[in-house]
Amino acid sequence: MLFKKIFEVNAIEIIKTAKDMQARSDKVRCQGKTIVFIPTMGFLHEGHLSLMREGKQYGNDIVVSIFVNPTQFGPGEDLETYPRNFEKDLELLKKEGVNAVFAPEAVEIYGEQFQTYVELEKLPNHLCGL
Q1: How distant is the alpha carbon of residue 48 from its chain centre?
Q2: Which range marks the domain in which residue 30 is found?
Q3: Which of 56, 65, 74 is nearest to 105 (CA)?
Q4: Fewer CB near the terminus (10 Å): N or C of the chain?
């Protein structure tokens, strides 16, 4: 029995669909909790973890997304070789006391017939675009 309680404390809910994420969020808010959402592309590092620790000051339900967004990569960029280690990320999230992970597939976010993109003409000429 003691093991079960320890396991439940360290368990992270893994959510794959937007519908399930919305349902979970509604349930948590109905319990009077405040959700802190930290979007990431995974392969977590100390910068990400510090955001989770900071987030605990603002809410009591920490949700992290792990989504490597294909639209953030241009032709010939490193989408396929972008580093991923979901199991290691989960271990780090458990240590930080994260409650849930939203880890959708691209088709869940964009749908099968996705065709709309935003093309920036001026912004890429300065700041990170350089």
Answers
A1: 10
A2: 2-129
A3: 65
A4: N
Is 48 a residue of the active site?
A: yes
Residues in a beta bridge with 101: 14, 64
Q: How many domains does the chain have?
A: 1
Alpha helices in 16-85 (DSSP H): 18-30, 46-55
Instruction: Say which CATH number the domain at 39 has.
Output: 3.40.50.620
Active site residue: 40, 48, 98, 102, which one? Answer: 48
Coil, strand, or helix at residue 130? Answer: coil
Task: Give the tens place of pLDDT for each residue, 2-56.
Answer: 544 444 456 899 999 999 999 999 999 999 999 999 999 999 999 999 999 999 9
CB 38 within 8 A of CB 61: no
